[in-house]
Design goal:
The protein has about 190 residues and is an alpha/beta fold. The two termini are about 25 Å apart. The chain contains seven helices and nine strands, in the order βββαβαβαβαββααβα.
């Protein structure tokens, strides 16, 4: 049993799902949806999820409104790209460290969060390697000011790599698996059978 920690997890789920051709966040998976599974996994370790909605944001706000450990933030600038969603989520972070993990990565287990957490410090921790960093990413809250002061079209990589970075070097391929395309969704569904 993974013991959950006082740490926020920002989950961007604001995009248009253009490569999928339909809204991927609410695609059926297991007993609920792709996004539900991603949130459930994060909450298996993290104390709170800051869900950043954009496209169809009202639906997500309504879906999770009764969950005290999920805060939905609507990014009205979501068409500016992922970084604008991370900025909206970072505004709400209240813990000394925080994770970022995408809403379309439903295979990242609470144990993966734990193993990344175990490497925490005054630097960013990626679960993978320098060649393939993966998700979830654990950031020190000291990076919040840089994230919030950057322009909408800023690059998260520039901010992360301006400070220290460590790699947990996990070999679990789930840290790379996102459900971006119909083929990836088919592969996900086959896994759950």
């Amino acid at each position: 049993m993974v013991q959950y920690q006082q740490v926020d997890c920002v989950i961007p789920a604001a995009g248009l799902s253009s490569r999928m051709g339909r809204w991927k966040m609410m695609l059926p998976y297991r007993h609920h949806t792709v996004l539900d599974e991603s949130i459930e996994n994060a909450l298996g370790f993290c104390s709170r999820v800051i869900l950043v909605a954009g496209h169809r944001g009202d639906e997500l706000a309504s879906r999770y409104q009764d969950k005290s450990n999920i805060e939905v933030v609507v990014n009205t600038h979501y068409e500016q790209g992922m970084f604008s969603s991370i900025q909206q989520g970072a505004k709400q972070v209240k813990t000394e460290h925080f994770f970022i993990c995408h809403g379309d990565m439903p295979c990242i287990s609470p144990d993966i969060y734990r193993r990344v957490w175990d490497k925490r410090g005054s630097y960013t921790v990626f679960p993978g390697t320098a060649e393939r960093p993966g998700h979830p990413v654990l950031l020190p809250a000291t990076l919040k000011a840089q994230i919030l002061s950057a322009p909408f079209n800023g690059k998260m990589k520039h901010i992360i790599y301006s400070g220290g970075v460590k790699y947990a070097e996990l070999t679990d391929t789930d840290i790379y698996f996102d459900v971006d395309t119909p083929a990836a969704y088919d592969k996900l569904c086959q896994r759950s059978q």
